[in-house]
Amino acid sequence: MSRRDCCLCDDAGAVITAAAEQGWCTWESINVEQDKGLLLRYGMDVPVLVSEGEVLFKHRVTAEQLESALLEIADRGREAA
After folding, report:
1. Tell me: the pLDDT tens digits for 19-65?
2. Which of 10, 12, 19, 56 fits as disulfide partner to 24, beta carbons 3.0 to 4.6 Å?
3. Distance separating alpha carbons of residues 25 and 63, to the nearest angstrom
4. How remote is the C-alpha of 59 from its chain's centroid?
5. Are residues 58 and 47 in contact, defined by beta-carbon separation less than 8 angstroms?
């Protein structure tokens, strides 16, 4: 979740884009200002990275943190299979 003119959103987007380019994930940026429910839920509390309904990060994320979270999600998927 993001919003316009948000430098933290831009920073997080760059980290996530780099991970996606390496094949770690796919992603979609959703502007909370375009959805009243999301705006009420997240407001200025962005960026928020959500995977399968679970909030992974708010405000800041590093490449290392994202990689760790994605590996954990992949491990859970393998355990469930």
Report:
1. 999 999 999 999 999 999 999 999 989 999 999 889 999 999 999 99
2. 19
3. 12
4. 10
5. yes
